[in-house]
Amino acid sequence: MESIFNSKQEFIECYRSQIMAITGKDFEHASDFDRFNALARLIASRARTVQTATDNRVAKSGKKRVYYFSIEFLIGRLLDNYLLNFGARDLVCQGLRDLGADLDDLCDLEPDPALGNGGLGRLAACLLDSMAHEGIAGYGNGMRYRYGLFKQEILDGRQVETTDEWLASGYPWEVRRQDKAVTIGFGGRVVGYEDGGRMYYRTEDTQDVLAVPYDIPVVGYGGKTVNKLRVWSTEPLEEHFDLDAFNRGSYAEADAHRADAEAISAILYPNDAGEHGRLLRLKQEYLFVAAGISTILDTFRLEHGRAWSELPDFVAIHTNDTHPAMCGPELMRILIDEERLGWDEAWSIVTKTLSYTNHTILPEALETWSIGTFSKLLPRLYQIIEEIARRWQDDFDKSRTGWQDLLRNTAILWDGQVRMANLSVICSHSVNGVAKIHTDILEHTVLKDFYALMPDKFNNKTNGISHRRFLAESNPGYARLITEVIGDAWLDDASQLARLTEFESDPSFLERAARVKRENKARLARYMAAEHAISIDPNTIFDVQVKRFHSYKRQLLNIFKIMDIYNRRISDPNFAVAPTTFIFSGKAASSYAFAKETIRLINSVADVINADARVNEIMRVCFIPDFRVSNAQLIYPAAEISEQISTAGMEASGTSNMKLMMNGAITLGTLDGANIEIVNLAGADSEMIFGLTAEEVEELREKGTYFAWDMYNADRARLGRVIDELTDDTFSALSGNFESIRNEVMQSNDANLVMKDFGSYVDAWERLTATYADPMSWNRRSVHNTATSGWFSSDRTIREYRDEIWHA
Ligand code: 26V
């Protein structure tokens, strides 16, 4: 691979002058942060040079541009990743060493932008990485939140949220593109006027804000393609500073206009809290859609003139979930109101251009907005949505049996609500789920009526992960070992990891892989000691569940298991299990009481168990605060058991399951989401599956014969005891008992079937950990997981999107 620096010497010279240029200091006097900042800016400027070249190439070739609209991009730190992708990591590392600095130390100073909640936002970032690697002209379009997802601290076992001021010291990767700012209007009233015998509409008296884009380069591995992520920030359109108010001493009032505009891009919504009635969120959604579409059409006009019918040949717009669902109506608005196309012509262009990915079947997560709120904020857009809805209804085939049901379930406007998922499906030529089972469930439950009407629109795109970030960069020891035996082609082509199967029975390779795992565990232990003064023992099994807290993900089942093992050890000192450290990490949405109580329970159980000498030889519990991309990259490589224990049918795909598999952890999981594909690839012997299947869950729910109390009564000694301990002060010392968890489980009749799967889960865990005693067999399965994980590279995912949806 060609490097961006011809030699170490050249790098050192450029770097020294960069530090001088931006700090006015020489290297020796610069602070560590100055050194990081200058390095990142140097790499960013090289990236932008390649980006310009990439863009010129695309413009010249007339290649289709793909725009990936997502209200979240959880990109993680970029410095190490871009050095790797540019093939400059070793050279820069040595150059810094010559200067007396350490690359890893500098990388640790980079802010970790939390511009996303979890899986959905991280997927968007992985797909950007893979688009650049595959040479796709692919661009992210999203929001630049001033404050990312809250930072999590743990106090008395409780989650405490503080603001994430990731921009406080500046962000070296972004460039502000004032020249590309777009005016966005809210509210106002629609005015019709006639021109040449046809009615047209415009909106008057809108409240306008300025959307200002910031561009972040996306460097593809190999360094040949650099794409970009464009994120939007809001500002007042003009300085409406109220001098009179200021002179009266009303400073806040004087600046109110600025505050109102800036509020739109101020915060990322914690998306599992239910967002009904939150006007700012609706403004965010329209803002990044309208600004993004405006940019796309400007580029298209510039490059291709005005043959709008050709738009779908040169542009694909992908909507990540329903948050960008206004893409359809907004594109219609511009084509008919401003470009003066006829409805049918515009509609054909829109549907050929748009595609949509669904990421959840949770009914409470399906986005709707009240018609009242929507039509007031976006009156013209609402009219267009009404027209789309009316035509959908008029064109409906009313000769079909049961058409009334089909129509009701597929309607865009219903019961005073705008249903964003239905809008997305109707405006798109492609609808996909994110794992095989998820797409099946979409087709047969949530979107079954659409599937009955247009089965060809539906397809599956099983998620993937960047194997470069989550294996090569996060797990350098393992990466070196892999490269030593199969060469480094796997960085480019993850299917090459399959060549590791040859080494699954090579004792010396397994031995070395195990040593790397041991070092990764020690690295995580050092992090916990340094950052949180928590001591964990790398000689124990690292059993890991890291993800957002949600009832369906069943962290509760995991902690019940831990309570049960604790109880059994206390009752019987001869009860033996393999020594294990149970590791949790993840955030709970701030208004999600049950999830927060689950965090408090875990910490309370940890508090008791970790201080109990009777059990400490076999168990400890560790909650890692503030789960985010950067500490995730330390956790995955250290994991040996991957807990993927959602109620079957509920987790659309999961992606931590893939990251953990790739790093050699064995999955302890239900047949849910992409776990099913993991088992299919690695084989049932390499994972440990337990619990009800999605069909069994559905059947149980339909029959209505399940009673949580039956489970309690049938296993008073173990499960019953665990339930009782929620309220009997066993774990109350830290900050009280857990009545609400007990009530939630017992009064909802165990909605997530925690009690139902408890027995088979604990059993499966015991069987799995018992096999740890045979290290060769364990290590063989671990390496086998890595060897069969290549298919989960997001490079594969993105090729499927490119070939089957975008045709780019
Ligand atoms: C949103 C909401 C909003 C209201 C209350 C409950 C709730 C629960 C979850 C969500 C998130 C929905 C979107 C999402 O993040 N889905 C995740 O997408 C990942 C990438 O495709 C996938 O791996 C995860 O399984 C899926 O949960």
Automatic annotation (TrEMBL):
UniProt keyword list: Carbohydrate metabolism, Glycosyltransferase, Pyridoxal phosphate, Transferase
Catalytic activity: [(1->4)-alpha-D-glucosyl](n) + phosphate = [(1->4)-alpha-D-glucosyl](n-1) + alpha-D-glucose 1-phosphate
Leading EC class: transferase
InterPro entries found in the cross-reference section: Glycg_phsphrylas (IPR011833), Glyco_trans_35 (IPR000811), Pyridoxal_P_attach_site (IPR035090)
SUPFAM superfamilies referenced in this protein's UniProt entry, alphabetically: UDP-Glycosyltransferase/glycogen phosphorylase
Sequence positions bearing N6-(pyridoxal phosphate)lysine: 659
Source organism: Coriobacterium glomerans (strain ATCC 49209 / DSM 20642 / JCM 10262 / PW2)
GO cellular component terms, A-Z: cytoplasm
Superkingdom, natural source: Bacteria
GO biological process: glycogen catabolic process
Similarity annotation: Belongs to the glycogen phosphorylase family.
Cofactor names: pyridoxal 5'-phosphate
E.C. number(s) listed in UniProt: 2.4.1.1
Gene Ontology MF terms: glycogen phosphorylase activity; pyridoxal phosphate binding
Name under which the protein is recorded: Alpha-1,4 glucan phosphorylase
